[in-house]
Peptidyl-tRNA hydrolase (Massilia timonae CCUG 45783), 194 residues
Amino acid sequence: MSIRLIVGLGNPGPEYEQTRHNAGFWLVDNLANSLPGCRLQREARFNALVAKTSISGNDVWLLEPQTFMNRSGQSVGALARFYKINPDEVLVVHDELDLMPGVAKLKKGGSSGGHNGLKDITAALGTQEYWRLRLGIGHPRSLNLQQGVADFVLHRPRKEEQSLIEESIDKSLRIIPLACEGKLDVATMQLHTA
């Protein structure tokens, strides 16, 4: 199986653009900008920004749901059903509290870990068996912050965290072509040892 749909998770609107919860959007934006002629455009029927592109010679859809995070499954489910994309051909890119800034991990399946975007996607796809690219943002406790989690994810990362998150996005972008070729084991190994 190769990846045919790459979903970046975030919240729409300028007030959320720079917040930790939008790390998935940041990766997909960077990916789209790196591909010739690739432009995310609003697609009303999917309530999302969408682009069809070619990565490693394979047709791949990029998707940024324009619902709020906890309704991301509406867009993902609608596009996957319309284009007959199986759950194991979907890669969801999201912020991860359990990983420190600078760390990125690739995995298939597993629980939502309390992430409302993943919960909704799991419900829409009817399974947890899709791929996740987890971009570490750290946890307020592990970063010695006195913030609640909900407040933390909806704020900008501190400068040093931002540069680490950007590094993890760069590392992640290098393994995307492998994922789109179906070499997910190689992609995972490269990302986890980078």
Q: What stands out?
A: Residues 159-180 form the longest helix (22 residues). The beta strands are 5-8, 41-43, 48-55, 58-65, 90-96, 104-108, 131-136.
